[in-house]
Write a structure and sequence with these properties.
Rossmann fold, 302 residues, globular, THF_DH/CycHdrlase_CS, alpha/beta, single chain, 3-stranded parallel beta sheet, 45% helix
């Protein structure tokens, strides 16, 4: 990726890439069902009735159905305790017909969200939210699952020919399911990664060094367009009321080489990766079952 002064930023079409990803995912799901009788199943867990969360879960369930993935939904009342939620998630983890588990974020404030996440079996953590998954990302293991939004961002970079190797990457945000794993995935691809956040001193000067900038701080237009390095790749992972991202889109459009729009950039890829990883989880289960059957047959023949 050469850094040059652009006339205007090229928008990175996450909607189109997500559609292609989901088409391939649906084909894999059909093949798995035809060959093994296994239909991938994603269980969604929603605590309370937050309107945005309800809408988001409904969208995921529709996309699951379109991709040939069974959607099993577990709605829980807002008064649900941490212990009750953990027990419900453990029951899904123990259910062999469930391949992936999604706990809709955020949960009500009285719940220990980390305890709930950790109740998800690593083999079913298709949203990439457990400590095991984070460790797998940090160590470059291929037997875990990536956090969906960072994973979707990496696929966007690949689709637009952006090689992170040797580039300076700045991640603004440090959440355990977005900012932190984003940095790990970029580091694994040989980028030089700097983490920043809302309390970083002189953030503008750090942003100005970024060949690849990922904004994931959760504040509308927190990143000023004037601070962006000419020709930089700008990934806006924020979504705030009014379809506003974490980046000053107008200003960034005048300086960036590549820019994700809000909406239509990162968001569609998050769901696409979630469903892709659900099918992968089911494929892994089917592969283990097939291997076990072959071993048992061989042992019986001896």
């Amino acid at each position: 990726m050469s850094v040059v002064e652009p006339a205007s930023a090229q928008l990175m079409n996450g909607t189109a890439l997500a559609r292609e990803t989901l088409d391939r995912t649906a084909e894999r799901a059909r093949k798995l069902l035809a060959e093994t009788g296994v239909r991938p199943c994603l269980a969604t867990v929603l605590v309370g009735d937050d309107p945005a969360s309800v809408t988001y879960v409904a969208m995921k369930r529709r996309r699951s159905a379109a991709a040939g993935i069974e959607s099993r939904h577990l709605p829980l009342p807002g008064r649900t305790t941490t212990a009750e939620l953990v027990a419900a998630i453990r029951a899904l983890s123990d259910d062999p017909t469930v391949h992936g588990i999604l706990l809709q974020h955020p949960v009500p404030a009285h719940i220990d969200e980390r305890a709930a996440f950790e109740a998800i079996a690593p083999a079913k953590d298709v949203d990439g939210v457990t400590m095991w998954s984070f460790a797998a990302m940090a160590f470059g293991r291929d037997d875990g699952f990536v956090s969906c939004t960072p994973g979707g961002i990496m696929r966007l970079l690949d689709a637009y020919g952006v090689d992170p190797a040797g580039k300076r990457a700045v991640v603004v945000g440090r959440s355990p399911i977005l900012g932190k794993p984003m940095g790990m995935l970029l580091l694994a691809r040989d980028a030089t990664v700097t983490y920043c956040h809302s309390r970083t001193v002189d953030l503008s000067s750090v942003v100005a060094t970024a060949d690849i900038l990922v904004a994931a701080v959760g504040r509308p237009e927190f990143i000023r367009g004037a601070d962006i390095k000419p020709g930089a790749v700008v990934i806006d992972a924020g979504y705030n009321p009014g379809n506003v991202g974490d980046v000053d889109a107008a200003g960034a459009g005048e300086r960036a080489g590549l820019l994700t729009p809000v909406p239509g950039g990162v968001g569609p890829m998050t769901i696409a990766v979630l469903l892709d990883q659900t099918v992968l989880a089911a494929e892994r289960v089917a592969a283990v079952a097939a291997s076990t059957a072959v071993t048992s047959t061989a042992a019986a023949a001896r």
